[in-house]
Specification:
Elements: E1 24-29, E2 32-37, H1 38-41, H2 48-55, E3 69-71, H3 78-87, H4 99-108, H5 112-118, H6 124-127, H7 138-144, H8 155-158, E4 161-172, E5 184-194, H9 195-202, E6 206-207, E7 219-225, H10 230-239, E8 243-252, E9 264-275, H11 283-288, E10 316-318, E11 324-326
Parallel strand pairs: 1-3
Antiparallel strand pairs: 1-2, 4-5, 4-9, 5-7, 6-7, 8-9, 10-11
């Protein structure tokens, strides 16, 4: 008769007979799994964690479906709590936007020393991620150099600026009898620009997982959209008052000895959009005509008003042996 094997979580591994808890403890904190020593969790007396893992029997603590000890708190911020318990130091990343929430976590776990290291509780106006803060470092200084001295940014200024849409796509040359073959394939649409502006335009369709800790007034080139339809992105930008002012594309064909009619070619294309919602008269035209002579930002094929000349697509992708293939027209 075969015996059914059971894999126990670390928290169930037997330790010394007299110890109610194992030396190594497995935690589920808000969906995030942590593995640490029990001695780390109880290293600071008179705290919530110390009380949990010294006064309560193991079987009385809540557990998840896999038997891990469950703590219903912010799983992302618990890493900083655990780091503090290990060496009594607090090391936060640059531009850390969650300081006030981390203070609440420290209060819940009754870690007075961590609260002291975090400093006095900031007000909601300073601690919230809105469009009013974060104007003091180098990136913002370089941005503000275009504005007249002494003039502060207004809400209209914050809705203005550039957003770059980029995508790495592919297309296939097909024979006449393959009319149903897919022409354009877009793997991911990247978004570059000021974070607050990108969030205002794309909202919940913006994936911020690759650059999550940046303040809203900083810039990023690591966001991407949760959908892969270029025209949907263009509609969003148009509804927000943006106009396309420049575009470019690079195409790459396969090696000649590998070339086949059905071989996929790859390309990278960028579209630059601008919203001239500025309170300073003429400032938008100053930006758009800085490199005058070829229309806005020196982009050929435009009529000088942010529109494609004659409704043509703004770019063509180069294929092998000088052949060209149009990208999806706007």
């Amino acid at each position: 008769m075969s015996m059914k094997e059971t894999i126990l979580p670390i928290s169930e591994v037997s330790g010394p007979a007299q110890a109610p808890y194992p030396e190594v403890v497995e935690l589920n904190v808000g969906g995030q799994v942590y593995v640490t020593k029990r001695s780390t969790l109880v290293s600071v007396p008179d705290t919530t964690l110390h009380a949990m893992f010294t006064r309560c029997p193991p079987r009385e603590l809540p557990r998840d479906s896999r038997g891990r000890f469950f703590i219903d708190r912010d799983g992302f911020l618990f890493r900083y709590v655990l780091d503090f318990l290990r060496d009594r130091q607090l090391v936060l990343p640059d531009h850390f936007p969650e300081r006030e929430r981390l203070q609440r976590e420290a209060e819940h776990f009754q870690l007075g020393e961590l609260l002291r290291l975090l400093g006095p509780r900031v007000g909601s106006k300073q601690g919230s991620m809105n469009d009013e803060g974060c104007h003091s470092d180098i990136e913002e200084s370089s941005q503000s150099s275009e504005y007249p001295t002494g003039r502060t940014l207004t809400s209209s200024d914050k809705r203005s600026g550039f957003i770059t849409i980029g995508y790495r796509g592919s297309y296939t040359t097909v024979r006449d009898n393959q009319a149903d073959a897919k022409f354009r394939r877009v793997a991911r649409i990247m978004v570059c620009g000021r974070i607050a502006l990108a969030k205002e335009v794309f909202g919940e369709t913006l994936n911020e997982s690759r650059d999550p800790d940046r303040p809203p007034e900083k810039y990023t080139s690591r966001f991407y959209l949760k959908f892969t339809y270029l025209e949907q992105a263009f509609d969003r930008l148009s509804e927000a008052g943006f106009t396309m002012v420049a575009c470019n594309s690079t195409g790459t064909a396969t090696f000649v000895n590998q070339y086949r009619d059905d071989k996929i070619w790859s390309s990278y294309t960028e579209y630059i959009f601008f919203n001239p919602c500025l309170t300073s008269p003429g400032h938008a035209s100053l930006l758009l005509t800085k490199n005058s002579g070829l229309g806005p930002i020196g982009c050929e094929g435009f009529d000088g008003k942010g529109r494609l000349d004659g409704g043509r697509a703004g770019t063509q992708e180069q294929g092998a042996a000088g052949s060209t293939g149009p990208v999806g027209q706007l």
